[in-house]
Amino acid sequence: MRLPVSIVLRAVLMGSAAVLAVPGMVAVPSAPAYARSAPESFADLAEKLLPAVVNISSSQVIQAKSEKPGSGPEMPLFPPGSPFEQFFKDFMNRNRPGNRGEPAPERRAQSLGSGFIIDPSGYVVTNNHVIDGADEITVTLQDGTSLKATLVGRDESGDIALLQVKPDKPLPSVSFGDSDKARVGDWVIAIGNPFGLGGSVTAGIVSARGRNIHQGPYDDFMQTDAAINQGNSGGPLFNMDGEVVGMNTAIYSRSGGSIGIGFSIPSKMVKNIVAQLREVGHPVRGWLGVRIQQVTPDIAESVGLKEPNGAMIAGVNDGGPADKAKIRNGDIVLKFNGRDVKDMPALPRIVAESEVGKQVPIVLWRDGKEVIVQATLAEKPSDAALAAGDTGGKSEGAKPLELAVLGLKISPIGADTKDKYQIADDQKGVVIVEVAPNSAAAERGLKPGDVIVEVQQGEVATPDDVRKRVEDVRKENRKSVLMLVQRRDGLQWVPLSLSAAKDKKPG
Question: Do 363 and 347 touch, CB atoms closer than 8 A?
Fold first, then answer.
């Protein structure tokens, strides 16, 4: 929104510049920061946008389950053996739904939300959770017209859904803006259907960017203080040019009402997914085929990385793009396709937004230096397809060994340890059989049955392999040693401190 010249001049003339006077130096005024004036009214913008925002109601039939005897309301307590005990038990069992000979009753559940029209022909965008499981979806326009909607496609991971209605005439619509240009402090307005009241307008600013609220693997929410309440889900967040820069999706609240912390999916993500839903009916995301974990300061120090940036590879899917690109466990992804990977959550988002089938450069931290590899991305498989097992191989063992410096006793994987700790037949590595209390290993939560697969990004097959690698790390005067450990909940890189036992000899 441009300000009149008179307003801009008045803001500049009323401002003051601080001057720092230092002997022998030329006084230079500091550059003051000026805020643009707030709009006198949002009325013109709201009047233009309201017709393109719709109310969405969905319903589904839920079949009540027959209750098992003994479930449901509790029976009054009677003395053991009382004649009333069996009477009430028989009476309550006979009168539970589904136990009286008739079918269990059905009930219809309804939910309300918001959406916005992106095409005059009748395409409507909303949150997936607004219509999830619905048997019927109804879109109500601002003038009260109700239209039955069909589901074109949905993205459960991103919580985005595309609907279609068939109107008698072209509908008012809105267009997507560039959410990347939305800055913290910019004015925004939210329009939606809070509590089923109908079209409501609230205003605020962009409070923060890049919020991860742990709703999914692609969290990158915009935060706003424009009031968002229940029923606003799926509604648009507009900039001052009337462009959609976000889709209102969630709120932070203990009461269920707005406390000024709302979250919107950036329009860049919504626009891309909606285009895919419209074209093929499902999201098409890039896939690298890796499992990752956060790079902690301890991990960064142990691999010679100055800052704890990037995403560390904790597993590679056999035959996936990363496997074909020779990416391996222990590599740290610093850049992907020219974009910095600042932390672990950033990598899935960047990969998902990348073009399937395109070869991209990946900057890795490996063996103390940067390495560049090329990977051709595949389309992300379904969650069921990603449940493939890990690869491995047989390992020849040696005698059990104590590593006092770490507080561990380790053993080769044999028939006895496989049975005792339920280790897979093809698991590679060295099994932990004892963890000393108050040791470095205990502090990191290691337990008997955990399997050490790699030490300092090198595979280990025997306890002596582990001992030698730990000795090498101590000779380099590092503060910690990095181990890839197979635990019950998956592979994980674990840094173990060596500083507490520098004067001790390895066992």
Answer: no
